[in-house]
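Recall that a protein's primary structure is simply its ordered list of amino acids. Everything else, from secondary elements to tertiary packing, is in principle encoded there. The following example makes that idea concrete.
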Amino acid sequence: FLGPVRADECDSNGVMRESGMMAKVADGMSHFFIALRDRPRADGIGGAALEYRIVFRKWPQLGDFVEVRSGLKGLGTKTMQICHFLFDVETGECLASAEAVTISFDLVTRKSIVIPPEYRAAMQQHVIAGLAV
């Protein structure tokens, strides 16, 4: 994600809420996954974040221009560990970071699926050893 902090993401004092940070991460996730797999997800397959741990360092303000950068920390049989970093574009300062555990799942059966071998091979090349929030 790359863009400004909007009023609907802020409290009455113009300070970004936690949900605003999550919105910025969510807005960029489709681009992140397409880059990892080098193709869109197969039809009938969805995704979900099972857990997030967020660390806030400095609260962005209304109108600040921010960028989210994400990296793949690791792969399990069905899970992916992804780290996200929210930066102030002007200063380069890391404002917040998050670590998530995610899965892909079959939209019909509503059950998690094993990461297909062809996706795993493509994604494994992007794992960043030692990545941490």
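The helical segments are 18-37, 117-124. The chain is about 20% helix and 40% strand.
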